[in-house]
Amino acid sequence: MFRTGAAAVFAATLLFACTKENSKTTTTGTDKNGVSAAVLKNISDLGFSTDQVRKVNNGYLVEGDIVLTDENLAETSTSPNVRIAETEQYRTTNLVKNLPRTVTVSISNLPTVYGTATQNAIARYNALNLRLKFQFVSSGGQIQIIGFNEGPSGGYITLGSSGFPTKQGNPYGQIQMNTNSQAYGTNPDVNYLTSVLQHEMGHCIGFRHTDYFNRAFSCGGTATNEGASNVGAVLIPGTPSTADAGSWMLACSNGGDRTFNTNDKVALDYLY
């Protein structure tokens, strides 16, 4: 996600809106975005930020670019490895199963540059020779990329959004990309689009933001730590115990073409 104006967010809500204030509930039990106190507590218990949570068609948008579905909110962790994040790469409890496997990806009703970026992102994953591969198809993909048009809100703009794998082991089925001119400009840079799609695909197969423990690392602002979670923050062995500035899953973008660094490849190879 990027910042516009004074701020920038990467992953997908430009990647997401790096908000600096915690969501607050009103006396009616809902916050200013109409999200109930019970849902906010559920989101917090799952180890996700409650800053700027928004209700969307298929669930709740959290951390700027992650969609938590009702199924996600109802799940409990079965992993003994969930812990407070520090700096390593982290995954969700659910991963894509039935490996080796090829996941199809399609795109619809978006300009040609988005299609080119999609194929570039697929090529980047497939070049790693993982047991999980991706294949571009003309329609009906298991991950479908669609567009939406939404301008800035609160000083930030959402670049895109996606979610996490299902309990059954299938990838999250949709990536939404913002076509508003204030997201990528009137002539989007294909490499930047590629990096955002690469990031969103990472969520679809189970990756958390590398710096979810302290979003200030990539987004700036006040340091925050979501604390222990009961689902969705599982340490990936072999990844670093110090800050990882180049990770493709950092919460906020530096505005450039961020791809896999060495530690990202270790994490992907371990899981897939």
TrEMBL record:
| Gene3D superfamilies, sorted | Collagenase (Catalytic Domain)
Q: Which UniProt keywords apply?
A: Hydrolase, Protease
Q: Which SUPFAM superfamilies match?
A: Metalloproteases ('zincins'), catalytic domain (SSF55486)
Q: Which GO terms describe its molecular function?
A: metallopeptidase activity
Report the InterPro entries cross-referenced here.
Answer: MetalloPept_cat_dom_sf, Peptidase_M10/M27/M57
Q: Which GO terms describe its biological process?
A: proteolysis
Tell me the protein's name. Answer: Protease
Its source organism is: Mucilaginibacter achroorhodeus
